[in-house]
Specification:
Blueprint: E1 2-8, E2 12-18, E3 25-32, H1 39-51, E4 54-61, H2 71-86, E5 90-95, H3 99-109, H4 114-136
Parallel strand pairs: 1-4, 4-5
Antiparallel strand pairs: 1-2, 2-3
Helix pairs in contact: 1-2, 3-4
């Protein structure tokens, strides 16, 4: 079974995909779209799900440190609801607190330039979101 991991931002979407045995997450790409126009990534991901026979989608769910949700979480909920209408895959919201901060720190420790970090952060955040979900199933 293939599982897809997503890190949704206001103009980028980090994408990761599991191996067929759903043990290991691999970063695929960072998809860029016009800020706030979520229809473009919705269509792209629906097509990706169909082409890769994805059965489950793990969508990062941005919670505040106190566990409450805000504006960006509502966008993720709406994205999930729209994606459910476009595909048969099951969609799970997954707590993504500190994911981007962890990825950014790892890249800083690896002496990656600011420009390269910006290019890769969303894809790597999606990978961490997906891998944490996969690990939780063990």
């Amino acid at each position: 079974m293939r599982i897809l991991g997503l890190d949704l931002g206001s103009k980028t979407l980090g994408i990761a995909l599991s191996d067929p045995s759903a043990i290991l997450a691999s970063g695929i790409e960072t998809f860029t779209f016009t800020e706030g126009n979520y229809q473009i990534p919705l269509d792209y991901i629906a097509h990706f799900i169909d082409n890769n026979k994805v059965e489950l989608v793990v969508l990062g769910y941005p919670k505040n440190m106190d566990g409450s949700t805000g504006f960006q979480a509502k966008i993720s909920e709406d994205f999930r609801d729209e994606l459910k209408q476009k595909t048969k895959a099951t969609i799970v919201l997954w707590d993504e607190r500190l994911t981007s901060r962890i990825v950014n720190q790892v890249m800083i420790n690896a002496n990656m330039s600011r420009k390269k970090r910006k290019e890769k952060i969303d894809k790597l955040a999606a990978t961490i979101i997906l891998q944490s979900y996969l690990d939780s199933r063990k």
